[in-house]
Write a structure and sequence with these properties.
35 residues; Transposase_put_HTH; DNA breaking-rejoining protein
């Protein structure tokens, strides 16, 4: 039997800025090592 969990995340403006910078860095590193 498989279980899946779905949830919504409503970040504040400060959290959005932090998430954007974090994902930007992760994307850069991923693309760097991918190529």
């Amino acid at each position: 039997m498989e279980k899946a969990y779905k949830f919504r995340f409503y970040p504040t403006k400060t959290q959005i800025k932090i998430l954007n910078s974090t994902f930007g860095c992760v994307r850069y590193v991923y693309n760097h090592f991918l190529g």
